[in-house]
Amino acid sequence: LNAAPMLKIDNLSAWYAESKVLHGMSFDVREGELLTLIGRNGAGKTTTLRSIMGIVQKRTGSINFNGTELVGKRTFQIARLGIGYCPEERAIFSSLSVQENLFLPPVLREGGMTDEQLYATFPNLKARANSQGTKLSGGEQQMLAIARILRTGSRLLLLDEPSEGLAPVVVKEIGETIQRLKAQGFTIVLVEQNLRFARLVADRHVVVENGRVVDILTNAELEADMGRVKSYLGV
Ligand code: ATP
């Protein structure tokens, strides 16, 4: 992938109150690329996604998205530029139906999936359109969380551990969905602890340790040297 960077993160630091969690991270994401953030619990992967979206108290450095600086912008402004965030907890509204959950976020820009395209991409959701959010399985909730941001016209998707807590067969389905989105041209940053899952779908991997980028590998480099990566993850 030789495309120009869509997202360029330079010397990013971030804080929760007085506590500094990210310490000068730099990496970029090319258009159409699927990049994972890997690393141990508490390394700062989620905080990196939250920093891109402007959901931390303080951040410094630069996050350039298609030429626009995100540091200093508010979350709603960042979303409007075409970045969709799928948090780890999925944030499905339990009292709303699948359909209501899906159609809740405003369509912020052109180019989002139509209802038909969405239901074609996620046939399970169509079958469950009138079910209550909480009555869904974990896998269906994850699909719903991803589908919800596709309506908004986002072209960069930030997905936080979509495989978490799901059975292997469901993880496989989510992986296929993510690969399909990549094939459709979405650019994806995926936080992932599950290496077996990450290596199936990704172009490159950014290894995060103590709020720092300690390595960046192509998927081929990861395949060729699993020992190196496992040592980072302590597995
Ligand atoms: P995990 O997979 O466990 O979520 P992670 O790599 O995503 O790990 P983060 O969630 O980004 O890690 O956490 C990075 C550090 O920031 C950790 O030390 C964590 O304890 C701390 N932290 C996370 N959220 C907050 C918060 N709301 N307030 C204060 N500290 C926080």
Automatic annotation (TrEMBL):
The lineage of its organism: Bacteria, Pseudomonadati, Pseudomonadota, Alphaproteobacteria, Hyphomicrobiales. Residues 7-235 form the ABC transporter domain. Coiled coil: none annotated. One of its GO terms (biological process) is L-amino acid transport. One of its GO terms (molecular function) is ATP hydrolysis activity. Keywords: Amino-acid transport, ATP-binding, Nucleotide-binding, Transport. It holds the Pfam family ABC_tran. InterPro entries: AAA+_ATPase, ABC_transporter-like_ATP-bd, ABC_transporter-like_CS, BCAA_Transport_ATP-bd_LivF, P-loop_NTPase. This is Amino acid/amide ABC transporter ATP-binding protein 2, HAAT family. Transmembrane segments: none annotated. Belongs to the ABC transporter superfamily.
